[in-house]
Structures are given as C-alpha cells and as structure tokens.
Amino acid sequence: MLAILDYEAGNQTSVRRALDFLGIPCSITADPDVLLGAAGVIFPGVGAAGQAMEELHSKGLDRVLGEVVRTGKPLLGICVGCQILLDYSAENDTSTLGILSGECRRFDPSWTDESGRNLIIPHMGWNGFQRKKECSLLDNVPDEAEFYFVHSYFPVPAPELVLATTFYGREFASLFGRPGLWATQFHPEKSGRPGLTLLANFYAYCNEVAHAQ
Amino acid sequence: MLSKRIIPCLDVRDGRLTKGVKFKGNVDIGDPVDMARFYSDEGADELVFYDITASSEDRGIMLRVVEEVASKTFIPFSVGGGIRNVADMRAVLLAGAEKISVNSAAVRTPEIISQGAAAFGSQCIVVGMDVLKVDTSQSIPSGYEVVIHGGRTPTGLDALAWAGKVQELGAGEICLNSIDADGTKEGYELTLTRLISEAVSIPVIASGGAGKPEHLADALNQGLASAALVASIVHFGEYSIRGIKDILADQGIKVRQVW
Fold first, then answer.
1. Distance CA B37, CA A40 (A)
2. Which long-range contacts (CB under 8 A, 24 or more apart) does B250-256 make?
3. Which residues form the active site (chain B) (predicted)?
4. Distance, CA of B204 to CA of A20 (rounded, Å)
5. Do A191 and B74 touch (CB under 8 A)?
6. pLDDT band at B55 (very low <50, low <70, confident <90, very high)
7. Which residue out of B1, B2, B92 would a mutagenesis test of the A interface target, given it has the greatest number of A Cβ atoms within 10 Å?
C-alpha cells in the first residue's frame, strides 16, 4: 500500500485517482502510523512553499517525513512536495525540510525562450527531459516523452542529485534524488501514460524494498 | 523546450456532448467521458469542457462528468460555463479539473478572478474572452470589443484593456475566442491573437476559426499563441490530433509527439 501524505495539497486526489486507475492500493492519510507502515509515501503538492511548510509544521508532518526518510522508506515528492524536500525556497523566503540539499529559485521573466521572447511564468504545459543518471523511475519511459509542468519556482539540488533535466529559459533539474528518495518537479499524475509508468515504477520499487526487508 | 498545446473543446449539456460529434466509423459520440479518453489517447495536450447546462439544478450531473473524466484520463483539463463564485470553482476543482474558465461572470464581477487566484493559484484561473471586431472609438481604441452571452451582448470593454486587467487580477491564462472567426473554418483571427499575446505575459489560447492544420500553425507562429483550441476540425473526423501534430512538427513547431 502507498500512503499519500494528506496536508490538503491541491493534487492529492489526482494522485489517488491515478493510483486507483493503476490498481495500486493507496490511502490519503496524515496518520504517522499509516505513513510509517506503508510500502512507500507520495508527498504531493500544489500551492506555495510557505503555506505548505506551515501546514506540515502545524500537523507535525515535517517530523513524520523525516522519520519516513530515516527509516529508508521510499518517498516520492511531486511539485511543491519536491521543492520543499530541499533546504530553502525563495518562494515566501521559506526555510524548507532540508531532506535533500539544494534550494528553490524563481524563473526570471527577463530570461528568454528559444525564439527570443521573454519567458511566460509559470512554466505551464508539456516539456521534455534529458536523462543525466540512471533512474529506475524512468524505466520504460521513452526518451521523447514529455511531462506536464506547472510552476514558477524551480529546484536547484546539489549537482550529484540531478537525475534528469528540462529546459525552460535554462536547464533545471526536473527529476532529482537518489534511489528510494525521489522528487519530480512535473506532475506524473497528469502526464498521461509516461506519468502513469513512472508511478507504477515507484510502486514496483517500493514493493521490492518491502520484500527485501 | 515547452510544447505548444492542442486543446479539443467539448460542449456538454446535461451530461452529454451537444454537437453531433462524428468519427469515421468508430466511437460512441455522445459520452464526454469516452470522448475525453479518445482525445487523450490521440495526443490531446489538454481538454476543455464547456458546460452549457441550462438549469443550475443539473450542475451535479456536470460534477459527476468531471469526476469520471478525472478518474479515466490523466491529462489536465479545464471546465467552464456557469461558474459564478469561488464555491463553484472549488466544487469543480475538487471533482478533479485542473483549471476553471470564467467568461461572463468575470465581466460582471471581475473580483471573481482575484478571489479564485487567491484561493487556488493563478494557474487554475482561465479567463475566456469572446471578442468582436468593431469600429475603433474612444472607448474601444483597439477596435476589438468584449462580448458576452455567446456573442450576443456587447460589454463596452476594449479587448486589449480587458486582457491587461484580467492578468493584473491574477488570471493564469486567457482563452481568446474571436466571434468573427468562430465557425468560419477560415482560420483564427491572427491580428487579434497577436495583439493580445504581445500585450500580456500569461499564455494565450487561440480559439475560433480552425479549418485546417495550417491555421493552427499560423495562430502559434504569427499569432504568438501558446495553445490552439480545436472543435469541429477534429470532432467530425476531418483531422486527427495526431495528424495535426505531425503537420505542425513538419513546420518546425514544437509539439508533444510521444505519449
């Protein structure tokens, strides 16, 4: 069973619908026992870093997330749930979870796209990716596939954590982490078949880890 | 590099598609959920549903449609039509839509845009604009006027000024429909599309007038639109989304080709 961390993030039900469609058992929960007992945890997110941190903090979920990572339980952060795994976010000048080293910066509207026009912010729509390191989440995802993005801030993790990058005004890390602790800036739950494949890969990894223990 | 989006638009009344959507010998054509799956499988980048349900009592039917679409397709979609306040927006978002589109309601009560953006984020709020070409005047210097109620009621608002205003209020996107071009199949209104796209820093979806793939290319290239809405050009099986994308890609336009 996968646990979807419940902190009233806008996309948590979308994640659940995608898992339901895949036949992956899951539950949206803020219960520490359920989170720590699950095969893996998905940490969704839509909204602003400051508000998300407040919400987590007020429910003590920041500590639970720390515990999930310490016990080696697989974790997948999505969008804001990806960004706030880092140390700091320029959004609302927020100190974030510090589970992975790096920070989050804002796209600069003076940057230009390939045609020389100023960037439209947020970065919203479908964009591709380039693999930088082997990552089992991308197994069976074609190189030319694209993912759905909606964000105004982008993650800048420590270089050794970068798994795949995407170009928007500049190259940024759209997938980062290490085995069992992953973060995607894009929304796999809204990225059609490639996104569903990534979620299924995450579940498969969680099951392997659970069976190995 | 961000892809240009192709967005089929589906009109729904009382839970069923209104136009006689026809395909060359396949697919049940009346069910919005089936159509959503069909277009998603064909490579649509996003979907738009317009709920033209007459009575507010039947709103619940639309919410069920939204929920079912969200449970069976995993691409973003927006819902417009009859959304009057933040509570309506919340209901549609909770049912599984990514975005809400407001049109007449935004003209009547512009604060609905800022309230929606504050509650759910700008990326959720699409403002639909129906625009008619008129003589330039002191109140309509651009020569393009915003109209509501499907083009029947003039508002006295200049389209260019209104586009700036909705951006300022927190709209995340503008869906720009030319009433003059709508239904002609002779191409999008490129002058209007470019005028608005250049004036705002949020994405503009071109709407109205698509008759062949080259028209989409024009709206995306000359019109500087981020996305193009399509309806009858795909609903009647004349072109497929995949076919349109192949043609756009041949012309050097970046579109999503693997899904």
1. 29
2. B251/B217, B251/B221, B253/B4, B253/B217, B253/B220, B253/B221, B254/B1, B254/B2, B254/B3, B254/B4, B255/B3, B255/B4, B255/B6, B256/A126, B256/A146, B256/B3, B256/B43, B256/B45
3. 11, 130
4. 34
5. yes
6. low
7. B2
Domain covering B5-250 in this structure, CATH number: 3.20.20.70
Structural domains of chain A, with CATH? 2-212 (3.40.50.880)
Q: Residue B24: pLDDT above 50?
A: no
Q: How far is A154 from B87, CA to CA, in rounded Å? A: 31
Domain ranges in chain B are 5-250
Residue type at A69? V
**pLDDT of residue B60 exceeding 50:** yes
On whether any CB of chain A is under 8 Å from the CB of B72, the answer is: yes
Of A25, A205, A158, A18, residue with least CA distance to B75: A18
Pairwise CA distance, residues B69 & A193, whole Å: 15
Nearest Cα of chain B lies from the Cα of A70 at a distance, in angstroms, of: 32
Mean pLDDT for chain A? 95
What is the pLDDT, as a whole number, of residue B195? 98
**Residue partners of A166: CB distance under 8 A and separation at least 6:** A127, A128, A129, A130, A147, A149, A172, A174, A185, A186
Rounded (10°) CA dihedral A48, A50, A56, A62: 110
Quickly count: other Cβ atoms within 10 Å of residue A135's Cβ: 19
Tokens encoding A61: 């979920």
- In which region does residue B4 sit, left (phi positive, over 0), alpha (psi from -120 to 50) or beta (all else)? beta
Query: B14 and B236 in contact (C-beta within 8 Å)?
Result: no
Give pLDDT tens digits for B197-242.
999 999 999 999 999 999 999 999 999 999 999 998 998 888 999 9
For residue A122 the two structure tokens come to 């947020």
Residue position matching structure tokens 């490129």: B190
Is there a contact between B223 and B206 (Cβ–Cβ < 8 Å)? yes
pLDDT for position B53: 73
Suggest the residue from A110, A126, A189, A196 to mutate for an interface test with chain B (most B CBs closer than 10 A): A126
What token pair was written down for A1?
């069973």
